[in-house]
Amino acid sequence: MTIRLVLAEDSTLLREGLVRLFDEAGFETAGAFGDADALLAAVDGIAPDVAVLDVRMPPTFRDEGVRAALELRRRHPRTGVLLLSQYVEGTYANELLSSGEGGMGYLLKDRVSSLEELRDAVERVHAGGTVLDPQVVRELLARRTDPLAKLTPREREVLQLMAEGRTNAGIAGQLFIGIGAVEKNVTAIFQKLGLEDSGTDHRRVLAVLAWMQR
After folding, report:
1. What per-residue confidence (pLDDT) applies to 30?
2. DSSP strand pairing (28-33 vs 50-53)
């Protein structure tokens, strides 16, 4: 049986190149899209065996592909998902993998060295297996260590006061430092905890949750 694919990749040249590679590998590309929203809008009528998605796509170029993969698996649990990207987006990738359902792959574009490797990844994902680039594994494992260990003593003090519900002004007064210094520490905390500004998640709340879970 020919494996039916859908593809989401914002680079036109790479998207067309992947379609040709998949054709050469013996797969059928049932749809190729320039962004994740277009793929999700069409996927219900296509019923693909495997979806191949870039991680960072329009409009924000942050984690659209991974979030689309989560939505795709929610709607079509039997559809395999292969993330093919230049980046490791650990937060959502970890959520995608934590289901333990299989049929999931995450490869880095620059490290895919042959058509045979790509064909094997698609076939294994389609069969319910898991395919992970070693670099992805290393980054995901690194995130399982204590993220608070990276914080300086001052940053830990600031985060503790954040957890007590204090504003930046309140923290400044408690520690006898300027508000600007507090803001710098808060920004450093977000960076060290891997809390990028996604436009949807409240980073201050997520940082406090990390503190409470220590």
Report:
1. 96
2. unpaired
Res 164: pLDDT? 86
Mean per-residue pLDDT, 54-64: 87
User: CA nearest 70: which of 36, 33, 46?
Assistant: 36
Kindly tell me the burial class for residue 178, based on how many C-beta atoms sit within 10 Å of its own C-beta (0-12, 13-18, 19 or more).
Answer: exposed
Q: Which residue has the tokens 């898991």?
A: 130
What is the chain's mean pLDDT, rounded? 87
Please report the DSSP string for 141-201 in residue order: HHHTS-GGGGS-HHHHHHHHHHHTT--HHHHHHHHT--HHHHHHHHHHHHHHTT----SSS
Q: Is residue 150 packed enough to be buried (19+ CB in 10 Å), middle (13-18) or exposed (0-12)?
A: middle
Which residues make beta-bridge pairs with 130?
A: 104
